Amino acid sequence: MRGWNGFAGALGLCLLALCVVGFGSAAKAAQCGNTAAGFETWKRQFAAEAQQRGIGRRGIQALMATQYSYGTIKADRGQHSFKLSLDQFMQKRGAATIAAQGRSKKAQNAQLFAAIEQRYGVPAGPLIAIWGLETAFGGYMGNQNTLSAVATLAYDCRRPDFFEPHLMAALQLIDRGWLSPSQRGAMHGEVGHTQFLPANIVRYGVDGNGDGRVDLNNRADALASTANFLRGHGWRPGAGYQPGQPNYSAIQGWNAASVYQQTIAIVGRQIDGG
């Protein structure tokens, strides 16, 4: 039997009309591993389960073409910056530079941010802070094959219950043509200007530039989707977003690390002029 987290994630995707058929009878659970040795066997097992959950030929072919990502595993085992103090973290991530450049980004894209705030209730500051912290305003969005990264982490025994729903979502997005099998992004499978994992594209991805599709490599789509994510995590228009204020909990939904949450709030306030 697969864990409840995996079931709930897949069920949520189905409720969003991305599953083509029902779950059907449960496939044999794919066996996780801590080395590359079992990855090919695991892919075949997961592919059988994915087919039962409605994944089509394009998604299955993309899954079978994935490769075990040693770089992703190394990055997953080496996340040390979140153990820094707040001052150390902000210095390491260039918070002062992000705030300064962020004020210029806000002025340069005033119409876009005004439209996003009108629709989602989220001001420019925290969105720009996230944009700067994640990719230096789109300057570097990663060069790791997204599907291989997510498949590797879904197979790895450390956190399969978290990443299996993201892999299933990625395969559904590939089936729909919203994600390319060759998409490249961050080491953990995040994509786009603000680094969305696949299941979050499904849940919160929106068309911000009006071209009829969701593309997180597009700035307007990514920023609107980020605002939609925060709204989906309880953002209240007009309320504050500093620690202890109503919207700080929405920022906490973005990243589990306290230093990251605080940095978003501080840099966002500096950009918004607070």
TrEMBL record:
CDD domains: Slt35-like
Record-annotated Transglycosylase SLT domain positions: 39-241
Keywords noted in UniProt: Signal
Residues annotated as signal peptide: 1-29
Domain of life: Bacteria
InterPro entries in the cross-refs: Lysozyme-like_dom_sf (IPR023346), MltB-like (IPR043426), SLT_2 (IPR031304)
Name this protein carries in UniProt: Lytic transglycosylase domain-containing protein
Highest classification ranks of the organism: Bacteria, Pseudomonadati, Pseudomonadota, Alphaproteobacteria, Hyphomicrobiales
